[in-house]
Amino acid sequence: MITDIAALAADPSPLARTITVDGAGLSIRALLPGDGEALVAFLAGLSGTSRRFWHGDTDHEVAAAGWIEAIGRYDKLRLVAVDRVGLAGVVDLSLSLPEGHEITRYAEHGIHLDPERTARFGPCVADRWQGRGLADALIPPAWEAIRRLGRDVVVLFGGVHEDNARARRFYRRHGFTEVGALDMWRRL
C-alpha cells in the first residue's frame, strides 16, 4: 500500500471521500491542477489571524501557482476540503525535514526524527468553517495519506505559535505531545 506523491498525483482517487460536517456535505481530495483559482480565493479569504497562524501574508496568486506547479513533485501533498462555495480547508503535508528546522528543534529536546518515517502537517480551514468540526474531520484522511506514504510520525509544519491556544488544544485532543514552546508531535 505504500505509494509516493507522484503516484498519488497521477491517481488521486485513493484519497477522495465525501464527509458530512455540521450538516453539510464536503468532498475531501488531493489538490488538483484546476484548483488554482479556488486556492487563490481560499488564501485571500483567510482573516489576518488565520494567515498569521498558518502561512503568513504571501502573494496569494504566487503561492497558489507554486502549489499547483508542485503537484506530484518535490515533497508536498496537499489535501483539500471542498464545499458548495469552494475550498473550505487545506491540509499541507510535507515529507521533507530540512536540516536546521524541525530536525534541529526536536533534537534540542532529545527527540530524533527519522526523515524516512516523519511527515510535517499543517491544516487550515476557511474562517467560515472554524469551530464547526471541519478540522477534526480532516484528521482521518490526513493520517491515511501519511500512512499511505509510509510515514508513522507527524510533526507540525513549522510548529505552533505559543499564543495560539485554540490550535494547541486541538492538537492535544488529537494525540499530539508538546515539545518546547513551538513544537508538537505524535506517532500514528
Automatic annotation (TrEMBL):
**Pfam families linked to this entry:** Acetyltransf_7
Q: RNA-binding: present as a keyword of the record?
A: no
Its keywords, alphabetically, are: Acyltransferase, Transferase
EC nos: 2.3.-.-
**Residues annotated as domain N-acetyltransferase:** 26-188
The source's domain of life comes to: Bacteria
GO MF, one annotated term? acyltransferase activity
Coiled-coil-forming residues are: none
InterPro entries assigned to the protein according to its UniProt record, in alphabetical order: Acyl_CoA_acyltransferase, Bact_Acetyltransf, GNAT_dom
Q: Where are the transmembrane segments?
A: none
Please report the name of this protein according to its UniProt entry.
Answer: GNAT family N-acetyltransferase
Query: What organism does this protein naturally occur in?
Result: Actinoplanes sichuanensis
